[in-house]
Amino acid sequence: MAALFVAGAVLAREPFDGDAAFARVEAQCSFGPRVPGTKGHAACLAWIQDEVRALGLVPEAHGFRAVAPATGDTLDLTNVLVRIAPEKSPRLLLGAHWDTRGWSDQETDPALRALPVLGANDGASGVAVLLGLAEQFVATPPPIGIDLVFFDMEDQGRAGHPREYCLGSQWMARNWPGTLPDFVLVLDMVGSPETDLGRDLYSLGAFPGWNRLLFDVAEGLGFTEFDRTRAYELFDDHIPFLEIGIPSAVIIGFDAPTWHTQRDVPASVSADRLGRVGEVVLEVVHGGYLGR
What we know:
This protein has 292 residues and is α/β, with parallel strands linked by helices. It has a single domain, classed as 3-Layer(aba) Sandwich (Aminopeptidase), CATH 3.40.630. The protein has eight helices and ten strands. The protein has helices at residues 18-29, 39-54, 120-139, 167-174, 201-206, 208-220, 239-242, 271-286; strands at 3-4, 59-67, 74-84, 91-97, 145-151, 183-188, 197-200, 226-232, 248-252, 290-291. The protein has a six-stranded mixed sheet, with helices on both faces. Strands 1-10 form a two-stranded antiparallel sheet. A two-stranded parallel ribbon has the order 7-8. Strand 4, helix 3 and strand 5 form a beta-alpha-beta unit. Helix 1 (18-29) crosses helix 8 (271-286) and helix 6 (208-220) packs across helix 8. The protein is globular and about 50 Å long.
């Protein structure tokens, strides 16, 4: 199994571009809600693959079928895998979900609860950072292998039924093509400036070193929104990989006030926050922390 090492010399690289990531948030939201089975969902899938190809990378579409828990509909779904430096090891899976929720169950106004969520933060923010990271890795090749995964069907579960969530990552953990990654890091709801980014208790309990590293790196960069005192116990796209023994963690601002509401729009997302999350991931990759 891969191990964690103390940082060595940092490779020269450009800082992460938070403004470009924000533009990618806006681009996704221009398709409307990306609820599986809708035109917005299909348009966003095509856009993600086009963005990847424009960087000179190859998007692998991994299709699967699943039943939507809330409706009972059987849907054709797609995870998108992008391999960077496939010859290198260890390998880090960086993931984010690209679908958006089909209803706004956290709305205080009952008349709004049946409306789909636009998902600027809950969906688009993680995807935007992943695409920005891909661009950075093309410009400055990473010292380790990177597997970017855009997970489908993460946010269609019913409250109180955690296994109904993260269907794309559950499928991917069971059907990974080739050798499994050595580490997993998921980005979810990383764009809201109205909440800090907390620690996930599942990964903290199973692989405390991997979880702690993320906050050590953020602290070293002076990013105070990574808050060690804030903790969440949640089922997210890292859990299926954690359950098969891979060190896995999530960077998330779970208690954003726009979560699962009609207020989850681009105006609720900060380019600066996206930039800081991107910087932490770049430092983890380029800083010499991961090795065998």
